[in-house]
Design brief:
- The chain has 107 residues and is of the alpha/beta class.
- The protein is 44% helix and 14% strand.
- It has helices spanning 7-19, 38-51, 69-76, 94-105; strands spanning 26-30, 59-64, 86-89.
- Strands 1-2-3 form a 3-stranded parallel sheet, sandwiched between helices.
- The longest helix is centred in the middle third of the chain and has 14 residues, at 38-51.
- The radius of gyration is 13 Å and the shape is globular.
- The two termini are 22 Å apart.
């Protein structure tokens, strides 16, 4: 686990590891972060993956207290701007995260 404090730092840490051929399996990000939010982090990662034709796509789980259906649909749209893999509404528990990851990554 690599803790980050804003979306820009998260992208730079992710990019640094990817450039060293280190696979990042999962990113869990709050949508509301300073400097660059979770949306921006997700978009930058997806754009980089697509532009550089990365073989392995990182699973991105976004969390937020906001549960507006339109916002969630926009975040999860596989052809949209952000292309997150899953969304959880706060408050969340460790069990919520484990269940999500088990459902999506152990298929």
């Amino acid at each position: 686990a690599l803790p980050i404090y804003n979306g820009e730092e998260g992208f730079m840490k992710w990019l640094n590891l990817v450039c060293k051929n280190i696979d990042i399996d999962v990113i869990i990000s709050d949508i509301d972060m300073p400097i660059a939010d979770g949306r921006t982090l997700c978009k930058k990662i997806r754009d980089y993956e697509k532009k550089n034709r990365l073989k392995k796509k990182c699973f991105i789980l976004l969390i937020s207290g906001n549960d507006h259906e339109k916002d969630i649909e926009e975040l999860l749209n596989p052809f949209g701007e952000y292309r997150a893999d899953h969304f959880l509404k706060k408050p969340i528990t460790y069990e919520d995260i484990i269940d999500c990851l088990a459902k999506h990554l152990l298929c």
